[in-house]
Design goal:
The complex is a heterodimer of chains A (867) and B (232).
Chain A: H1 5-25, H2 27-56, H3 63-66, E1 71-75, E2 80-81, H4 82-91, E3 97-109, E4 118-124, H5 126-138, H6 146-158, E5 164-167, H7 169-175, E6 182-187, E7 190-199, E8 212-216, H8 217-224, E9 229-230, E10 232-237, H9 240-253, E11 258-262, H10 263-273, H11 275-306, H12 308-316, H13 321-365, H14 378-405, H15 408-413, H16 423-442, E12 446-447, E13 453-454, H17 456-481, H18 484-488, H19 492-498, H20 506-543, E14 548-552, H21 566-573, E15 578-591, E16 594-601, H22 603-609, E17 614-616, E18 629-633, H23 634-640, E19 647-651, E20 656-665, E21 674-678, H24 679-686, E22 693-698, H25 704-714, E23 718-722, H26 723-737, H27 739-766, H28 768-776, H29 781-823, H30 833-859
Parallel strand pairs in A: 4-8, 5-7, 16-21, 18-20
Antiparallel strand pairs in A: 1-10, 1-11, 2-9, 3-4, 3-6, 3-10, 5-8, 6-7, 12-13, 14-22, 14-23, 15-16, 15-22, 17-20, 18-21, 19-20
Helix pairs in contact in A: 1-2, 2-11, 2-13, 2-14, 2-27, 5-6, 11-14, 11-20, 11-27, 13-14, 16-17, 17-20, 17-29, 19-29, 20-26, 20-27, 20-29, 20-30, 27-29, 27-30, 29-30
Chain B: E1 15-24, E2 27-37, E3 42-46, H1 53-61, E4 68-73, E5 76-77, H2 83-93, E6 94-97, H3 109-119, H4 124-137, H5 153-165, E7 171-175, H6 183-200, E8 203-207, H7 211-215, E9 219-224, E10 227-230
Parallel strand pairs in B: 3-8, 3-9, 6-7, 7-8
Antiparallel strand pairs in B: 1-2, 1-4, 4-5, 9-10
Helix pairs in contact in B: 3-4, 3-5, 5-6
The chains are: A alpha+beta (867), B alpha/beta (232).
Chain lengths: 867, 232
């Protein structure tokens, strides 16, 4: 193949006369195809942005102040004490490093002006920070610290204020805070007033995140009348050699409960926490891209089929085949370039929306995230654009190859509705998919560094099942047309519409495949969510048996560390109306280097009220009270491959303790797993006497609301809620967790309905002369509309049926394989029949509506004359 | 019914048009054209390519509106009639035969013929005997279950003729019915068309290029220079 000057001229002429003129005439179709591609690309980019926002929240706070911190030191259980900090200073006394002790907690604005109620409070050693700045000034540090040094005089003047705090300007503005104003906050169970001192100085690379306030750790602990402890110690080193040197020193001298990580390791820990969530999002967004590729293939195939004769004539006249192939590919490229470009714009817009939803999910599941990381780099944008163009080119390559291979005589003679359908291709795909699904079922999960399992076999099974069901549906499509004589008894339009499926074309098959996949995936998600909801409802029905639940108002998400003091709890329990009560203690710990939860249970209460749902109950209930025994949650069992009879060794600040596992219980509130020990053991090892929650049973149930109001008035920093409210709230949180999936479901359904609409439009355009002939023999426009509705609704109904069957299988895979391996939760399979019926009805009705609109549009065009 | 078009009782002709005109932009196809076709009469319409023969056929069918003048189908004024009412008139009183057959590819030969009877609301128990009779009459009884892709050109046109006459229309409009057939098949199809129209007492207006085909008809008209003139 030699591209000479004459060939280039020919290509240019053919491109302008065949491609451009064609698309100018069919600009609406080009635009529709580009929009579908852009929607898929947009969704893909939006999910990418949301994922990045999720991970970026894990970036260390000190990145915002000092550039990047290099090494982080934490405790495997509880916080770092002042003694720990002193020990580190002593060990590193001769090293070139700066130490920044940091604590993080949740704080609530007592009377917020906006919806921002919960904030993150960061406690720092302001003197360590000032020393760092001093060194920077002395060294005339790089320009990145200019902003920091220029804003430092204000900081120097105000930092000694006992009850002061700093935050970013947007947080202050949204809450209408003025400098010097005292703001009421609630932290743990205490109410306190803090003075807003101004914006916190940052290094200029990034602003301080919104929803964050900064305080001096020492003064803050003093106000709260608490012992000063830190969540972590951040170490800043000058270069990589120093980092290695310090890591060596620390590994030689560190205490057993210290965990030393580089910034990279810490970030990867953060990433791994949300790995399962992000992986599921990515799988869903990739699916949308595949469905879009399906649609592009459909659009290009229709274009190729429609213009077979055009190209056959060119071939007959001696035009090389590679030129026509090239022209087809340039069409796909054009769609990819325009669609991908629009997708980038759409993706950025959708990104903001999806970030909000993903953040909501992440907030509920893990920690307070922020949207500041909701950006995507140019290289990522271009690579996504490249993927879209590649996907479009691939979708255009197959029909182009077929068209270029076909003899011109055959092409000219061929009816435009005939296709290259070979049933044995689909039998082959079905058989291969079946074999792959068996492999997927047998494949064990991969273990990631975070301890989470990656269900590769489960994902393979999903793909194989989709392949199998789509192939079988396509093979059965012809039989749907056989119902024509039966349907024609009821409606002549049904005869005209459904008879088209007697000899289905590629477009019918593609639309059927698209609907099957979209309905299948959506049905599977509906089944998963319903099963989760049912399981969680049953679970909370079991664990929530008290009349009132009390916690600090500042406690929010799973890892909130807000606690109540023993004194406060005693004040509550003094009330004579309380017949029974139970407390809960818990804190984050590290096991095998990974975060998990240690819970101190009131096992007597748990046994009396049967609040723990056992998967493997202890042999003897009394053994729960024996020191040295522990129970674990199902997620812990899956994540750390531990079961009854095994031992877990935990590092505490003062000692190492080993517990033997005697039972496994359900805990659907924590995917990182938890270890339950008796409250006596918990207090003994962790020295943490703060109470996380309090459950109260009353003598008289008519007093519930009354006592709740009384307690809230008496203890304004506490949240006192009834059993009914808490159950409703749990379900609300549950819905928040799944909020992101609703958008993905809607996008999937939109794409499938758009695919069906595009199919009807293309088919009616292709059959334009036939439509004209029908009109001439007296078929009314109304009947043609109804025929189009019958044709597309039949595919939608058949696709929905296949999709529901596929959804059942995918639901089983999601619940028993992917979910079990990703989160370690056993769910009760639930069949949400009403929702599935609504899904199918929605698809069929939307399709019917689209078909009506398309047919109406076609009928408005003048009948083609054969002169 | 008040909204029913008034029947012109002075005419028994299946098709009458008086002073009709049609233009596309600056181009006039015909002007002040008048035509009357009597019951059972076969009329051939000749004319050069682009003279407006097929457009005239579309106007008579009601598919395209005329700019001026009136068209009476079986005594009922169809020019400027509401589309839904026009559909009803067309499906019951007109049969159409196309050059390219335009059979529905996904319906069998039987189902294609049956379609026009179903459209006019003929009871189901009367449809099969009528279709079987026509298929036998046109020599395609054995091809009843064949799809159009399996039929020869001549067979397709016979199915199209059967479909056009099945519902016993007043007039058959045929647009070059032999134009896509070899001479032998064309001759057979034309003879059958003429014979069946005669048996069913349907008038025939046939657009053709062929003077030979036109000679089979009772009257020959030529459309040229925007007017119709009678040959011979």
């Amino acid at each position: 193949m030699e591209i000479g000057k004459s060939n280039l001229n020919l290509i240019a002429k053919l491109a302008s006369r065949l491609m451009l003129r064609h698309w100018c005439r069919n600009w609406l179709k080009l635009l529709a195809t580009c929009l579908v591609v852009s929607l898929a690309a947009g969704l893909y980019i939006a999910i990418d942005i949301a994922n990045k926002a999720t991970v970026s929240s894990f970036e260390s706070f000190t990145d915002q102040i000092t550039g990047s911190s290099d090494i982080t030191l934490t405790s495997s259980s509880g916080n770092l004490s002042l003694q720990d900090i002193a020990s580190v200073r002593k060990i590193l006394i001769n090293s070139e490093t700066e130490l920044f002790p940091v604590f993080e907690s949740n704080i609530q604005v007592a009377s917020p002006n906006t919806g921002v109620e919960q904030l993150l409070v960061i406690g720092l050693d302001f003197y360590a920070l000032l020393n760092h700045v001093g060194r920077s000034e002395t060294k005339e540090a790089s320009s990145k610290n200019d902003d920091l040094t220029s804003s430092i005089p204000v900081f120097r003047e105000t930092m000694d204020t006992r009850n002061g705090f700093y935050c970013d300007a947007s947080t202050a503005a949204s809450n209408d805070w003025q400098i010097g104003q005292e703001i009421a906050f609630i932290v743990n169970s205490q109410k306190l007033d803090l003075k807003y001192l101004g914006s916190f100085p940052t290094n200029g690379e990034k602003d301080l995140s919104s929803r964050v306030i900064v305080v001096d750790a020492r003064k803050f602990a003093n106000i709260l009348d608490q012992d000063l402890t830190y969540d972590r110690l951040e170490l800043l080193v000058s270069d990589l050699d120093s980092e290695h040197q310090i890591l060596d020193i620390l590994s030689e001298n560190k205490a057993k409960h210290w965990i030393v990580e580089t910034q990279r390791q810490r970030k990867s820990t953060g990433e791994s926490m949300t790995q399962a969530l992000r992986m599921n999002l990515r799988a869903l967004s990739t699916l949308s891209l595949i469905v879009a590729a399906f649609l592009v293939f459909q659009a290009l195939d229709s274009s190729v089929v429609k213009r077979h004769k055009e190209f056959a004539i060119l071939h007959s006249l001696g035009s090389p085949r590679w030129i026509s192939k090239l022209l087809w590919l340039s069409e796909s490229l054009l769609i990819g370039i325009i669609g991908g470009g629009l997708g980038i714009i759409l993706g950025n817009l959708l990104g903001r929306l999806s970030t909000g939803m993903v953040s909501q999910t992440v907030d509920t599941l893990y920690y307070f995230s922020n949207n500041s990381g909701a950006t995507i780099s140019k290289s990522d944008l271009f690579s996504t654009w490249g993927i879209v163009i590649a996907v479009c080119s691939l979708a255009g390559w197959f029909p182009a190859k077929l068209a270029s291979k076909m003899p011109p005589a055959q092409l000219i003679r061929q009816d435009s509705k005939q296709s290259n359908y070979k049933s044995h291709h689909y039998w082959f795909i079905a058989a291969t998919s079946l074999a792959l699904s068996i492999v997927g079922y047998l494949l064990p999960p991969l273990k990631s560094s975070s301890g989470h399992s990656i269900p590769v076999g489960g994902y393979l099974l999903v793909i194989a099942l989709i392949g199998f069901f789509v192939s079988i549906a396509v093979l059965c499509l012809g039989y749907l047309g056989s119902s024509t004589p039966f349907l024609s008894r009821f409606d002549l339009a049904a005869k005209l519409g459904v008879s088209q499926l007697r000899n289905p074309v590629t477009r019918h098959r593609l639309a059927l495949g698209g609907v099957t996949v979209a309905v299948g995936m959506t049905a599977a998600m509906i089944i998963l969510i319903a099963s989760f909801e049912m399981t969680v409802k049953n679970w909370i029905g079991n664990i929530l048996q008290a009349d009132l639940y009390i916690r600090s108002k500042a406690s929010g998400s799973l890892h909130s560390d807000a606690r109540m003091s023993a004194k406060t709890v005693q004040g509550i329990l003094y009330d004579q109306r309380i017949s029974n009560s139970s407390t809960i203690y818990s804190g984050r710990i590290r096991y095998d280097g990974l975060y998990t939860t240690l819970t101190g249970y009131d096992f007597k209460y748990a046994s009396d009220y049967n609040t723990l749902s056992w998967f493997k109950a202890p042999m003897s209930p009394t053994s729960l009270f024996t020191p040295g025994y522990a129970v674990i949650s199902e997620s812990f069992q899956e994540r750390f491959s531990k079961s009854v009879g095994d031992f877990v060794r935990l590092e505490f600040p003062d000692q190492t303790a080993e517990f033997q596992i005697i039972g496994v219980y359900a805990d659907y509130g924590n995917e990182q797993g938890s270890i339950g020990i008796s409250q006596e053991s918990y207090k003994k090892y962790t020295a943490d006497n703060g109470i996380r929650g309090l459950a109260l049973h009353l003598n008289d149930s008519s007093q519930i609301e009354h006592l709740a109001t009384e307690l809230e008035e008496k203890f304004p920093s506490l949240s006192v809620v009834t059993n009914k409210w808490l159950r409703e709230e749990t379900l609300r949180i549950f819905n928040s967790v799944f909020s992101v999936t609703y958008a993905l479901k809607a996008a999937g359904l939109f794409i499938s309905v758009a695919g069906l609409g595009s199919m009807v439009f293309s088919l009616l355009l292709e059959r334009f002369k036939q439509v004209g002939a029908l009109r001439m023999i007296g078929v009314s426009g109304n009947m043609i509309r109804r025929a189009a509705i019958w044709e597309s609704a039949a595919i939608a109904a058949f696709g929905s049926l296949a999709g529901i069957l596929l959804g059942q299988m995918l639901g089983l895979v999601l619940i028993y394989i992917i979910n079990k391996q990703s989160f370690g939760w056993t769910l009760q399979f639930t069949q949400p029949i009403t929702q599935l019926i609504i899904l199918c009805a929605g698809i069929i009705l939307s399709t019917a509506l689209v078909a009506y609109v398309v047919a109406n549009r076609i009928l408005k065009q003048p009948i083609e004359r054969e002169e | 019914m008040n909204d029913r078009p008034p029947k012109d009782i002075t005419s028994n002709c299946p098709l009458v048009c008086s002073n009709i005109s049609k233009s596309y932009g600056q181009r006039t196809l015909f002007r002040d054209l008048s035509l009357e076709i009597k019951p059972g009469e076969a009329v051939a319409l000749l004319g050069a390519s682009g003279s407006g023969k097929s457009t005239l056929l579309h106007c008579l069918n009601g598919i395209e509106p005329v700019d001026e003048g009136e068209i009476l189908l079986d005594g009922i004024r169809i020019s400027h009639m509401a589309p839904s009412e026009l559909d009803n008139q067309r499906k019951s009183k007109i049969g159409t035969v196309f050059q390219f057959f335009h059979l529905l590819p996904t319906l069998t030969a039987f189902e294609n013929i049956e379609l026009s009877l179903q459209l006019t609301g003929v009871p189901q128990n009367q449809i099969a005997p009528r279709v079987e009779h026509l298929m036998k009459r046109l020599g395609i009884a054995e091809r009843s279950n064949a799809f159009p892709r399996d039929l020869s050109g001549g067979e397709k046109q016979r199915v199209a003729i059967a479909r056009a006459v099945a519902h016993q229309p007043k007039i058959i409009l045929a647009d070059e019915p032999t134009g896509n057939l070899d001479s032998e098949s064309g001759k057979t199809a034309l003879n059958l068309l003429k014979a069946v129209c005669s048996e069913e007492n349907a008038a025939l207006l046939m657009v053709t290029h062929s003077e030979h085909d036109a000679s089979v008809c009772d009257r020959q008209l030529v459309l040229e220079q925007e007017k119709i003139r009678t040959l011979g």
